[in-house]
Amino acid sequence: MKRLLCSLAVLAILPCLHAQDGGLSVDADFLTRGEIRSGGLTSGDDDVPDFATFILERSLLGVSYTKQGFSARLTAQHSGTWGSYEGGTFNVYEAWTRLESPKGFFAKVGRQNLSYDDQRIFGADDWAMTARSHDALKIGYEGHGLKVHIIGAYNQNPENISGGTYFTGGIQPYKSMEALWYHYDIPRTKIGASLIFMNIGMQGGTKGEDEKEYQQQLAGAFLSFTPAKWSAEAAYYHQMGKSEDGIPIDAWMASFKASCSPWTKWSFYGGYDFLSGDENFATPAQGMIGMTHHEVIRGFTSINGSHHKFFGAMDFFYVTTYVGGFTPGLQNIYAGGTWKPADKVSFDAAYHYLATATKLQNADKPLGHEVELSASCAISKEASLSLGYTYMRGTETMVVLKKTTDRRQLNWGWIMLSVTPKFLSNPNR
Predict the structure, then answer these.
(1) Residues 298-321: tens digit of each pLDDT
(2) Is 220 helix (H, G, I), strand (E, B) or coil?
(3) Torsion of CA 120, 124, 129, 134, to 10 degrees
């Protein structure tokens, strides 16, 4: 709370200061979204209706300062549900400074967003009401079509002079992280290529007894090709190391997406995602607890990615867990199109066929079919309104894996207002 009050005080004082040799700006992001759900995420209690409606809100208030060779940003965040007794969550979303040289080298330290390539590995996850950020040091080089970023982070619970280094979780689930991202735009082509390597340390064991830090690695590549009226992208990532329970990890994922814009107002897209899954996956019977021994974890998981962006808008996969905690993986075949009848209006429709990646012992692979409809309209320069509806017809496998309603009719609708005013803008002198 003290940190929040200090941050709000700084936000109140900064606009009153006169920037002598730099540029000062104050901006905000107000997001309000109402949702209605019917079916899909049950509590397991038959007496509790599988239906919910609620209104969520998120408010960001940020101050940025820039001058030659230096920039800084501080952003306070509040998020919550309308009418909630708890009053929502207050925290600091961004608090960083950046130093850079004319030759392209830079260093950025503090709480910051990390977003790379298609955001499967690192992403802001902006759909969530508490957008993701990391306490990290990032150093690198950008220039001549080349970008190299080196990232390091070490997390700990409130500062102690004693008590060891056992980490019970905080803004991020990992205790430590090291990452290298390399990107190169090939000259005179529309091809971009990225390589990423990451190691994260996850706290394991029990505090004061058998404390251990298990290391997990990820390596992968991302390719994009973006000529005038169509584009294509592909990615492959492999996970290794050990889980928090000390179980070896050997998992991978691959994806491909193609898009085209044959006419000015129309565009189409389609793709395929494959995420490996745990072998010998079995779902427990009704009222039973599933206990399956796994010598190796083969279910791919993206800890820092933008989950809502992929695998269907209902967020059944890699946002909520499966029964038993392990995952049979996922296959996602999708196609869609966007129509823009005017500059400020767009409509989108998409279809997903979803199935598990591995064969289940007591169920089939298909999970269901999902149809998504959405529309957006820019009301003004600062405000936009969007809404959507998603319907999923689940299979019996979906029922037993996610404990969804036996009706297998899953519906979700939402409407969202986004307002992003800029209260003060003082460009560099």
Answers:
(1) 889 887 888 888 888 888 777 655
(2) strand
(3) 110
What is the DSSP-derived secondary structure letter of residue 248? B
Q: Assess contact for 57 and 77: CB atoms under 8 A.
A: no
Q: How far apart are CA 106 and CA 294, in angstroms?
A: 44
Domains of the chain: 36-62+74-92+107-416 (2.40.160.100)
Q: How far, in whole angstroms, is CA 50 from its chain's centroid?
A: 26
Count helices and strands (H / E) in the chain. Answer: 2, 19
Q: Which amino acid is at 11?
A: L
Half-sphere exposure of 101 (CA within 13 A, CB side): 8
Across 267-287, b (16+ Cβ under 10 Å) vs e yields bebbbbbbbbbbbebbbeeee
Q: Would the pTM count as exceeding 0.85?
A: yes
Buried/exposed 161-181: b ≥16 CB within 10 Å, e otherwise: eeeeebbeeeebebbbbbbeb
pLDDT-derived band at 373 (thresholds 50, 70, 90) equals very high
Question: What φ, ψ does residue 165 adopt, rounded to 5°?
Answer: -125, 25
- What tens digit of pLDDT does each residue of 18-50 get? 545 679 999 999 999 999 988 755 545 555 667
* Helices (H), ranges, 14-113: none
R_g (Cα) of the chain, nearest Å: 23
Nearest Cα to Cα of residue 309 among 77, 88, 131, 180: 131
DSSP H or E stretch at residue 336: strand 330-342
- What are the structure tokens assigned to 375, written together? 């529309």
Total residues found in the chain within this entry:
429
CA atoms of 119 and 4, how far apart (whole Å)? 29
- What are the strands, taking DSSP E only, across 68-133? 70-81, 89-100, 105-112
